UniProtKB/TrEMBL annotation:
InterPro entries: START-like_dom_sf (IPR023393)
Name of this chain's protein: Carbon monoxide dehydrogenase subunit G
Protein source organism: Robiginitalea myxolifaciens
Length: 130
């Protein structure tokens, strides 16, 4: 399953946007209002839960300085990644595309597509407001 959020226009340089997203504590500011739990487990891992959804643990999988940050499921039960592709668009301006890629069976994909689309859309909207 491949889902892309609308591009976020961010009033920060590409470097500053990358550094903001690399500090996983900042993801708490990007979460939907329905967040019930947010906890930093270590510098590369955080756990969160949204109302009515199971708890998810995300781990930093890879980073290409100033261009891309990839987070993924910490467990292998439901393999997926959330990738932020960051581009410079001007001085103190950048844009971020959030891309979700997951491997789910057809039934699971049908159940999670709407909530995941809404979730990454909210992350993108809130990132543009930072």
């Amino acid at each position: 399953m491949h889902i892309e959020a609308p591009t976020a226009q961010v009033a920060k340089s590409q470097k500053d946007t990358f550094e903001y997203l690399s500090d996983l504590r900042n993801f708490e500011n990007l979460m939907p209002e329905s967040i019930q739990t947010f906890e930093i487990l270590d510098e590369d891992t955080f756990r969160f839960a949204l109302k009515g959804m199971p708890e998810i643990v995300l781990k930093k999988k890879s980073a290409t300085p100033h261009e891309q940050l990839e987070l993924g499921a910490a467990s292998g039960k439901l393999p997926f990644t959330l990738t932020a592709n960051i581009r410079e668009t001007g001085p103190e301006q950048s844009e971020v595309d959030l891309v979700f890629q997951g491997e789910f069976n057809a039934m699971m994909a049908m159940m999670v597509k709407g909530p995941i689309t809404n979730f990454i859309g909210t992350l993108s909207t809130n990132l543009a407001q930072q």
